[in-house]
Amino acid sequence: MLAYPQIDPVAISLGPLQIHWYGLMYLVGIGGAWLLASRRLHRFAPTWNKEKLSDLVFWCAMGVILGGRLGYVLFYDLPAYIANPLLILEVWKGGMSFHGGFIGVMLAAWWFGKRNNKTFFELMDFIAPLVPIGLGAGRIGNFINAELWGKATDVPWAMVFPTDPQQLARHPSQLYQFALEGVALFTILWFYSRKPRPTMAVSGMFAMCYGIFRFIVEFVRVPDAQLGYLAWGWLTMGQILSLPMIIGGMALIAYAYRRQAAQGAVQ
Fold first, then answer.
1. Binding site, annotated residues
2. Contact 34, 131 (CB under 8 A)
């Protein structure tokens, strides 16, 4: 068994002001996405400058934060937030939904594209390889907060988390998600998108791979206590929300290549 590193969730304290590692991870994700996007900007939109890119990143970040928070409220714990709406403001305690943030980014991309002469899928294909940076950073934030831990296990790398009332050795599922949703997904998308792909293919690859990775990790992650298992005694909310991503991602990839082949045949 490995010892949990006991990292203080508060990175900086300045009197009553506390800056949490969880919040800093969002800054890491947004900053990293901007830096990598600037490397590919000339290929995506030669007439855009870095100010235009900053606008895109800003609106997508708003989509992540607002969509992620509202998604958690709606998908995971609506009764608690109806009873105490002020809980919505306590973002430093966690409580963000990837699927809600994903919807928020899609809405931001649609809105931004309409105003900048880019289609929805052109923007989503450009954004998709950047998203794993934020996902990976967010999972490190979950690990530091000692939240979203896994099921009890006897694997050699199991950990006892200080927030676990049972103090059992558990899967460090946050680190599994960091490895899959962050490192593996970034590697797949970064190299896949380096070559020209038909529109929608990169978006489809992101949706499919994320959905698969999330679905797998949910088998060793403890579901939210207020929800538990929702279907057949083993499906979690995370898995239910990931299934449409897997199916939709596969459909987008198939459609993108079929459409490219059809256009080539016509030419």
1. 139
2. no
